[in-house]
Input
Amino acid sequence: QNEDKWDFVLVSDIHEMGSEKNVKREKFLDELSKKGFIIKKIKDTKLFYGVRAPQHIFWKYQSLQRKADSRQQNSSTHEDVAETTRIRIVSFILRNTVTSDLEKLHDLMKKKVFEAAFPLHKEEDIRGILKDKWARWGVIFKKQPIKEIRHYFGEKVALYFAWLGWYTYLLVFAALAGLVTVVAGTTVFSSSQVSKEICDANTTFMCPLCDQNCSFWVLSDTCTYAKVTHMIDNEATVAFAMFMAVWATVFLELWKRERAIVVTKWNLHRWDEDEEELALQLINNLQHEPRQYQHSYFRSTIILVLALLLVMVLIGIAHMLVIYRAVAMALFTQSEVSLLSKHANTMAVMTGAVLHYITIIIMTKVNRHMALFLCNLEKPRTLSQQENSFAVKIFIFQFFTNFSSLIYIAFFLGRINGHPGHYVRIAGHWRLEECHPSGCITDLFIQMAVIMLLKQTISNIMEYLIPLISHRLRKKRKRPRERSRTLGEEEEAEDPCKRHWLNNYELNEVNVFSLFNEYLEMVIQYSFTTIFVAAFPLAPLLALFNNVIEIHMDAIKMIRLHRRMVPRKAKDIGIWLQILEAIGTLAVIGNGLVIAITSDFIPVQVYKYMYSPCTRENRTDMDCSTGYINNSLSVFRIQDFEPHTKVLPEFMGHEIKECRYRDYRSADDYTYTVQFWHIFAARLAFLILFEHVALCVKLIAAWYIPDVPQRVKNTILRDKHKNLRNELSMMEYVTEV
Output
C-alpha cells in the first residue's frame, strides 16, 4: 500500500471550535473513520482532508464482480484494483455516507460545511502521455489515445471521445458532399435561366415593401441575391438532402459497430449498471434495501403539462422575434440613415438573428433549471435513469429554443402575410415581413449561417477562456497567503501532499453535468448539421472545423484546467443514441419540407413541365425555365392599395399603374389561380415521395450494416463455450473425487 496514495480530498473552511459547521464536519469524518477510512488533515488557508479507503472494501467489490462475471471465478487472489475503479467506489461511499443527523455529503456541501470534494490528478506516466499525445494543439490531426483516456478518466469519458472522434471522421464525407453541392451551384447552376431573368428584369416594377415612404423597386436590384439563392437552391441540393438522410443513418450504424468492438475489448459487454449500483450500496451498508421501481400517472401528467408550458413559452419567444423583425423593418425603412433604409430587410434579418442568439443563451439557463426541477419531480431510481430523464427533457427544450425561429422562417415566413391591398398586420399596424425577393430560402440561409458561426466561435472562445481565466484568478487568490509564517509552521508546510492538493484545489471544479454539457452541445450541433442542411449545405463543413478544435479543447480543459472527473463506468453513450436516431428521422422530414415548401425547386419544375414554352412548342434548343420569373409574379393595380398606404406613383420617370408581387393570384379579384393549386399538389406529392424514399433507404442502410461485427459475436460465443466447458469438467472432476 502506497502511503501517499490518497483517493479523495475534502476541503473545508476553518470553522470556529464548537460551531455548528465544525460539529457537523467532525460527525461526518467520524462516520468515515468507523468504516476504516484513513484521514489526513493539512491546514492552509483552508482545511484539507485526504481520504484513503481500507483495502477490504475493494476486496469485497472484487469478489462481488467475480460472482457477476463467472469467467474469473477460479482466481481468488486479490490483485490491485484499477485506479479509476478505486476512485469510483470511494466517491460512491463518500456520497452515500449518512451522519447521525441523517445528512449526506451533498447536504453538508449545501450548508457550506465542506466546500469541495474531488479525486486528485496524478503526476504519473499516464497523465504525461495524455498531456503529450492529446491535450495540446500540436496533435490536432493525430488519433486519440482512447485506451489511456479510459485508464485515467473511466469508460464514460472514453466513450464520449470515441464517439466524438468517429462523428468528426464521418463529417469529412458530409462536408465534402456539401462543398461539392455549393461548387456545383456556383459553376453549373450560376448561369441558370432564372437568375439571368431576374438580373435582366429592369422594367419589372415590384410593389413597395412597406406602407409609408417606400417607393416601388426594380426586380433586377436583387440580382446578387438571386445568384446566391440559386447557388443553394438547385437540383444538386435535392440529391445532397437525400445523401444527408442516408449519411445520418450510416453514421449511427457504423458507430454501433465501433462501440461493440470497443466495449468487447474492454470486457464490458456483460457488465450491468443496476447490479453495479446494488453492489456498491451493499458494500457501503449491508442493511441497505433497494429502491423499488415506481411509476405515477399523476406525476407524469404534471411533468407533461409543465414541459408543454415551457415549450409554449419557447414558441412564444420565436413569435416575439417575428414581431421584432416586422417592427424593425418598418422603422429601418423610415430611418434617416440611407444605409439602414436601403438594406432594411437584410438589417432586420441580421439583427433578428443576433437577438435570437442572445435568447438562446438566456433560455439555455432557464431550460436547465426547469429540466432539473422536472427531473426531481419524476424521482428517478438510479443515477443513470436520472441522467437519461434529464437529457431527454433538456434536449427537447434546447431544440425548441434553437429551432423555433428557424422553423418559422422555413415554413411560415412569406406564406401568412397576405397580399398587396390585403396585408396581415400585427396589432392592425405593422405588416408581417415578406420573404426576400429572391426566395425564402435566402432568409433561412442567412439565419443558419449567423447562428452557426456565432454559436461556434463565441461559445467555443467562452468555453475555453472562462476556465482558463478563472484558473489563473484562483491561483493568484490562493498564493499571497503564503507570506509570513512562524518557524513551527514552516516545518509543517514541507508536507509533500500539501502542494499537490493545493494545485488540484486551484483547478476549476467539475460536476455531474460537465460531460453532459459536452454531449448536449454536440447533439444540438448535429441537429443543425442534418435538419435544415438543404438550406445551408456548408453546415457539415463548419461542424467539422468546430469538432477538430472541440476535441482538443475539451482535452486541454479536462487535463490542465479542471479538477479530475470521478471516473464512471459505461458500455454505451446512453440515451443520446436514441436522441440522435430521432434527429435522423427529423432530418428527413425537415429537409423534405425545406425542398418542398421553402425552396423554388417545385414551382420551377411545375412551370417547366406544364406552363413553359417547351410544352407548347416542341423546341429543344431553348431552356424550359424561360419566362418562369414573369409567370411567378402576380399583377396588382395601384388603385386597390389600402387607404393609409402612402406610395409615390411616380418612379424613375415612369407613371406606374400596376406593380408585381410574388404569388399566384389572378389580376381581377386576387384569388388563387389554378397554377397555385397545381404547385400545392406537386409540393405535397414531392414531400410524401421524398420522405418515403428517404425513410426506406434509411431502413435498408440500417438492415445492411449489422450493429455488432461478426468477430465480436464470435469472441463472445467462444467465451460462453469455454466457460460452460470449464464448469462441466470441474463438475466431472468433483464427482470422480
Residues 8-71+79-120 form one domain.
